[in-house]
Design brief:
Length: 453
């Protein structure tokens, strides 16, 4: 049968595109080689958040005294994992039923594009060739495995883990070296550290947390250092042995022995072996090139999610998928990346949206920056004894339009969307002053911040 749309991959981009296209009346086939829901649901966003929530409860119980609560607590990693698996099952079932409700046919098997025929785009999966008027490539990404001596052997022996294996470890390691202090590294470092693992983070750059606000990232690091986590920045890993990680820092070699190593040095788009060459789909620097409608150089062929390498975040993938489907069905829509929030779910969370002060200045934008301590929020003070959270707003000096917001505090993952709206709607400081926030909430810090201008 000829489908209106064949979707390759069922992660956030793939399943949402399937749902939206099905809802719009298209006949849709979704092909998935592994698990429905992709990395996000099965071995990424959701499993990590489940683990981190258990860690937070444990941490709160252990440090309840400052709130007048004396308790003894124990964390049972096995039970945490069992709950994580249950949460994943529940959400995967939800995605499956949403696909079904929207009439999407799902095939399990690796899909390989076989070119364009008179019958449409041909994709082979599970020994059958399927045909579609359009294609959406949403094959996601895979962990980067750098050519460091010993990595390959470590992966084979189980000493070196990617996030996938780290999320299924039956017993937490006594000592864990995390190579790469980005999002995955920090979130898993936070979990294992909280439950008692001795954690060291080895990062090549001179800061953790990638492109996030440098000052807030440094405060986050300091907080974890105080709790006993070790950080080695500006460190170049030179070898992984059977029980250690060796790295150079300022010309000196250090060797850390460990029970396990987490490799979290980035992910790369999954474009190998999916038959892109059969259509001549253009990829650059390992990612599929798309236009503002998420269409590739081949009309009728789209790419959304990690595979286009623009923003490797599930929520960016959702929006890209919607833009692609809208283009297919003739609804005017374009992709805009100006206000994609990013959150690192450490404790406290680090959330940001829009430009950092550094990025704005690099682009030659004249900006004002206000930095406000979270103690301006009553709810924060009530719930964070001794907390040192900070919120920053980046505002265009001339127009007073809000360009960026950055917050280091819990709940920031939930309220950063408000700042994203300010940016998306092009709101000025004066506009935000007129918005009523519920009181007491940590979100009120955004309101406090605009009154500093
Ligand atoms: P990342 O790009 O966030 O961080 C990788 C880090 O490894 C960088 O800081 C880099 O400088 C460092 N690095 C690279 N090579 C190194 C080496 N040889 N030695 C030491 N350090 C090295 O990548 P990560 O953490 O693996 O995450 C992958 C993707 O998953 C990201 O694009 C992220 O957006 C996404 N993700 C998002 C989450 C969220 O939104 N909360 C959670 C988990 C993943």
């Amino acid at each position: 049968m000829l489908y209106d749309l064949i979707v390759l991959g069922s992660g956030p981009a793939g399943y949402l595109a399937g749902e939206r296209a099905g809802h719009a009346g298209m006949r849709v086939l979704c092909i998935e080689g592994r698990d429905i829901g992709g990395v996000c649901l099965n071995e990424g966003c959701i499993p990590t958040k489940t683990l981190l929530y258990s860690a937070k409860i444990y941490d709160n119980a252990m440090h309840g005294e400052k709130y007048g609560v004396a308790a003894t607590a124990a964390i049972e990693h096995g039970k945490v994992l069992a709950r994580k698996n249950k949460v994943v099952r529940t959400l995967v079932a939800g995605v499956k039923s949403a696909l079904k409700a929207n009439g999407v046919t799902v095939v399990n098997g690796l899909g390989v594009i076989k070119g364009k025929t008179d019958a449409g785009f041909a994709v082979e999966a599970a020994g059958v060739t399927h045909y579609g008027r359009r294609l959406l490539i949403a094959t996601g990404s895979t962990p980067v495995v750098p050519p460091i001596p010993g990595v390959k052997e470590g992966l084979e022996s189980g000493f070196v883990l990617t996030s996938r294996e780290a999320l299924t470890l039956a017993d937490p390691p006594g000592r864990l070296v995390v190579v790469g202090g980005g999002v995955i590294g920090l979130e898993l470092a936070a979990y294992f550290h909280t439950i008692g693992t001795q954690v060291a983070v080895v990062e090549m750059l001179d800061h953790i947390a990638g492109e996030t606000d440098a000052e807030l990232a440094a405060i986050l690091q300091k907080g974890y250092e105080k709790k006993g986590m070790a950080f080695y920045l500006g460190a170049r890993v030179t070898a992984i042995t059977a029980n250690s990680v060796r790295f150079d820092k300022c010309g000196e070699t250090t060797e850390l022995t460990a029970d396990a190593v987490l490799l979290s040095v980035g992910r790369r788009p999954h474009i190998a072996d999916i038959g892109l060459e059969s259509l001549g789909v253009v990829a650059e620097r390992g990612a599929i090139l798309t236009d503002k409608h998420m269409q590739t150089n081949i009309p009728g062929v789209y790419a959304a999610g990690d595979v286009n390498g623009v923003y490797m975040l599930a929520h960016a993938a959702y929006r890209e998928a919607e833009v692609a489907v809208n283009h297919m069905i003739g609804v005017r829509d374009t992709m805009c990346y100006d206000a994609i929030p990013a959150v690192i779910y450490t404790n406290p969370e680090l959330a940001c949206v829009g430009e950092t002060e550094e990025a704005a200045r690099e682009r030659g934008r004249d900006v004002d920056v206000v930095k406000i301590p979270l103690r301006f929020s009553g709810r924060y003070v009530a719930e964070n004894e001794g907390g040192d959270g900070i919120c920053k707003l980046v505002v265009d000096k001339r127009t007073k339009i809000i360009r960026g917001a950055h917050a280091l505090c819990n709940y920031s993952s939930e309220f950063i969307v408000a700042a994203g709206m300010f940016i998306t709607l092009g709101l000025k400081v004066e506009d935000v002053k007129k918005i009523v926030f519920p009181h007491p909430t940590v979100a009120e810090i955004l309101r406090e911040a605009v009154f500093q201008f």
